[in-house]
Amino acid sequence: MGVTRRGPAVGRDRVLAEAAAMLEEEGPDQLTTRRIAERVGASTQLIYTLFGGKNGLIDALYREGFRSLTQSLSQVPVTDRPEQDLVALGLAYRENALRRPAFYGLMFGHSVAGYTPAEESRRTAAGAYAVLVEASGRLLAADDAHGGTAEEAREVALHLWATVHGMVSLELAGMLPSGLGSELRFARHVRAICAPAPRHRDDEPL
After folding, report:
1. CATH, residue 73
2. What is the mean pLDDT of residues 162-191?
3. Which residue among 54, 89, 109, 157 has its CA within the 20 to 30 Å range from the CA of 204?
4. Which of 183, 64, 189, 180 is nearest to 117 (CA)?
5. What's the rounded Cα separation, in Å, for the pair 76 and 72?
């Protein structure tokens, strides 16, 4: 009875590890239930039993990708220089993407036809954004003139994420101009967007 209970848990870990290896080695197009089952020496029924099918397995990989990203961002040291911390977070984001480009594509590129992340998976993905929001809040709080609201912190974090994401995506696609793919150049561009934008009242002209 004990062996029967342990089997599914062990099987899930093994299947997920092999699917992750296949994703990184061959890309998302090769992630079929048949090929993954063959890789672990089982029938395709195992994939349905453990994950509910291919999309369930893709969803598990999606969550793994965002857990890894959140962990990378969370390991960036917090200092008394929040602007530098945000630059370091941008560099950590870039390193994670360059180290696991296939996962990056799965997380952001909608590279698996017919797959849409489940609500639980979207909540997992939000963990990475939360790290940036917290760091952005410290940046705004360091501005003695006005501090910052939670909404403003989310806006700064979104601006940073959008810019970093765009630059990383262009770098992975080989579309950055010559010389802009270096870590130093990347850090300079991230630093340029970290300063809080000037505030204005809603009724003031832009």
Report:
1. 1.10.357.10
2. 82
3. 157
4. 64
5. 7
